[in-house]
Specification:
The protein has 226 residues and is an alpha/beta fold. The chain folds into 2 domains: 148 residues, P-loop containing nucleotide triphosphate hydrolases (Rossmann fold, 3-Layer(aba) Sandwich), CATH 3.40.50; 68 residues, no CATH class. Helices cover 56% and strands 11% of the residues. Strands 2-3-1-4-5 form a 5-stranded parallel sheet, with helices on both faces. Helix 4 runs antiparallel to helix 6 and helix 7 crosses helix 8. The radius of gyration is 20 Å and the shape is globular.
Length: 226
């Protein structure tokens, strides 16, 4: 097959937008707003559960590394117990990430390649912690003041301020997330403003997606539809 025939036979790659943000910033709400506009969402948190489901290679590897103590009575992963274990031990956390991150990345790659849409949202809460952009075309960071994050975490998890600050400290800093951002969506709790901002970004991403497809080749641009 010639190079031109191969290009014609290859479906266009969708434009990939990474969605990230600190804990309690409102990432899930933003993802839901994009989904309501018909944008496919690939959620790394859901995939993280999928790759360690009962019977999976991921769960078997975790069991070999951490033992039966991290399994629930039904044989599934006791995520709370495992989270407590790795939170207190950086080496254990590194071992867990070495098991799960490649599995998550591979599954996300498969899903991205299967999407046929102008663009797709990759919701990755720990994008800054995991090395940044990877194969994303653009990064959207949902941001809010740290004081608001802390109050939201305290209310959501029923914990005190010290515990909430410890949770924030375990993540990448706000500055680190903003450093990888192409777009920043500030979420201070006004849902109407959030919806309007998402609609503006949606229009922008459609334009960028069409431009990116056109730059690959004239035939790809025609395959992009809204």
């Amino acid at each position: 097959m010639s190079a031109s025939q191969h290009a014609a036979a290859t479906p266009p790659r969708g434009y990939r937008v990474g969605l990230t943000g600190g804990i309690a910033s409102g990432k899930s709400t933003v993802a839901e707003l994009f989904a309501k506009l018909g944008v496919p969402i690939i959620d790394s948190d859901l995939i993280a559960r999928e790759v360690v489901a009962p019977g999976s290679a991921g769960l078997a590897a975790i069991r070999r590394r951490f033992g039966d103590d991290v399994l629930a009575t039904d044989g599934s992963l006791d995520r709370r117990r495992l989270r407590k274990l790795v939170f207190a031990d950086p080496a254990a956390r590194a071992d867990l990430e070495a098991i799960t991150h490649p599995l998550i990345r591979e599954r996300m790659r498969q899903l991205n390649e299967s999407v046929r849409a102008p663009y797709v949202i990759n919701a990755i809460p720990l994008l800054a912690e995991g090395g940044g952009r990877r194969d994303l075309d653009r990064v959207l960071v949902v941001d809010c003041p740290e004081a608001l994050q802390i109050s939201r975490v305290m209310a959501r998890d029923q914990i005190d301020e010290g515990a909430a600050r410890a949770v924030l400290a375990a993540q990448a800093s706000r500055a680190a997330r903003l450093a990888i951002a192409d777009d920043v969506l500030v979420n201070e709790g006004d849902l109407a403003a959030l919806k309007a901002a998402v609609q503006t970004l949606h229009a922008r991403y459609l334009v960028l997606a069409v431009a990116a497809a056109a730059s690959v080749g004239g035939g790809c641009a025609g395959a992009i539809t809204q």
